[in-house]
Amino acid sequence: MRHLPTRLVPVEDYDQNPPKTRTINQIHIATYNVRKLSSHDRLIELEEAIKQIKYDVIGISEVRRQGPSIEEYNNFILCYVGQTPVKYGVGFVINKLHKNNIESFTGITERVAVLNINFQGYKLTIIQAYSPTETANENEIEEFYKTLDNTLENTHNTIILMGDFNAKVGITKEVHLITKQFGYGKRNDRGQKLVDYAPGNKLTIINTCFKKNPSRRWTWRSPDATDFYKTLYSDPSQRDTIQNNNTEHDTLPHYDHIKSIDESEIIQAIKRLKLEKSPGSDNTNEALKTAYEILATPLADVFNLILQNSETPTQWSESNIILIYKKGYPKNISNCIPISLQPSLYKLFLAIINTRISPVI
């Protein structure tokens, strides 16, 4: 039996409701450091964010999901590769309109991934890369660029190499095929490495080709920001070495740079808890005060896991809200003050973080 097409329109009639198609005369490609997609909530945040922009493919870094994997969602397809738990990982978010255009996805390493896609006969190879940071040793950097070399050698289509190279190319007076005049800041060692790498592979650093309004420029503040936050979360005895020079710091530290919370910090924070305060939903104030020596070690494990995953327990987002009568007619709710009682463990964790950052803010 022959199957009729899903849409039948008489030859002489005009189709008032044609199927959705898209003629591609522009391809919108972007790259973004997502700083973690390990939870469902973060995926929802990403989905909401990309609804605001035009995109065909977005290369993503620091996915922090273990793969390789290809996952289909309502409006996009997520391809990624990752190996080290809660670290690194790269991939792509592909507009679902191009589902049938994807030829292949290959996760080379947790720092390099390749997408081959066919845009109406125009074959394109997109390489997403995530370079080690400035704190990495030279062997890691050389291994990263060696992987890029091998990947580029095995590619025969038009190539776009993009991602987070943790580099500052800077402003240059020499305008040539590699860099143009619209760089930003002062070139660092990683930036020089990238500039030196580009000619051998016939690459142009596209970010330097377009002028941007200064208010719309974003950059990773390095090394000052790294040192600032590294000290901020470090041993309390070292914090008096920080000099506040009114520099803006807009980059949060990686877990690698954060000193683990130890038992002594927890014990000191518990001793500062006040028993007369109303407890939250976990009702643990008295237990913490009574058995702090026993609880210090498991609490340290939990708190460090929270720092590592950048994610707090769901219970910590819940509060008990009670109304305290103020004045006037007691049954009028506007005459009451709402008080939010948060979980005691949440307040304990915040107390430790507050103790660390108070000397420098």
Q: Please, could you describe this protein's structure?
A:
By secondary structure, the chain is α+β, with helices and mostly antiparallel strands. Helices cover 25% and strands 19% of the residues. The strands form three sheets. The chain has a five-stranded mixed beta sheet with strand order 1-2-5-4-3, with no helix packed on it. Strands 6-7-8-9 form a four-stranded mixed beta sheet, covered by helices on one side. A two-stranded antiparallel ribbon has the order 10-11. Helix 5 packs across helix 8. The protein is elongated and about 75 Å long. The relative contact order is 0.07. The N terminus is likely disordered.
Adjacency order of strands in the biggest sheet:
1-2-5-4-3
The outline comes out as elongated
Let me know the number of strands: 11
Q: Low-confidence runs (pLDDT<50, min 5 residues)?
A: 1-13, 220-226, 228-255
What is the residue-mean pLDDT, rounded to a whole number? 78
Classified in CATH, the superfamily of the largest domain is: Endonuclease/exonuclease/phosphatase
Percent of residues in helical segments?
25-40%
Structure classification: alpha+beta
